[in-house]
Amino acid sequence: MTNESDAPDRPMIQIAHSTLDNMPCNSSDIDDFLSYWTRMRCNGDVPRRSDIDPRGIEALLSNAFIVERIAPGLARFRIAGSHLSDLMGMEVRGMPLSAFFNSDHRGALSDALVEVFDAPATLHMDLSSKGRAGAPAMSGQLIVLPLRSDLGDVSRALGCLVTKGTPGRGPRRFDIDEVRITKIDLGQGITLDMPKSTAPAPTGFAEDRAAPLSKAERPYLRLVKNT
Structure pTM? Predict the structure, then answer.
């Protein structure tokens, strides 16, 4: 994939072919988020949705989400942390990921999502949101990491949206400042026997009830609040 020379209004997309070590991160929590996804890889493949345990991403649980590919370049939220609802000013489950982007930046997001699911590849975006009355300027980072569904196709993705600044009045929508896509070498990976945690799962990552599950898909990320 080459730079979008025919669409100069879109941010430049850079595609790397090395490992996730070259993906810049401004937060140790984001580093841990990426490391968890990497540990879940088995025999070089991308993780399955059923491999993802919210305990492994607890530090960014309110920022985390799982999306489902519903068309080329289009994905909708199946599960979303509370921070995303705070940014939007409403529940986001069932909404497209593009709802967080200004209209003239949704094409670049669509192009990047095609790579995430088709290559497959990981996605890291630097974002910004201009200030307005009741909503100060913000910056953010979006991470999208591909997953396999229980049917074996790469049609799910684990992600997080981390922002800096006060959300203010929603909905908040972002411009894309930079896009970094890292293609995954499915021939290289690690195999780990991950111990099963017996600790109670943290709260804040709600199961999507708005979007129906496929017959083979179980709600693996259902979290139960202790009473």
Answer: 0.76
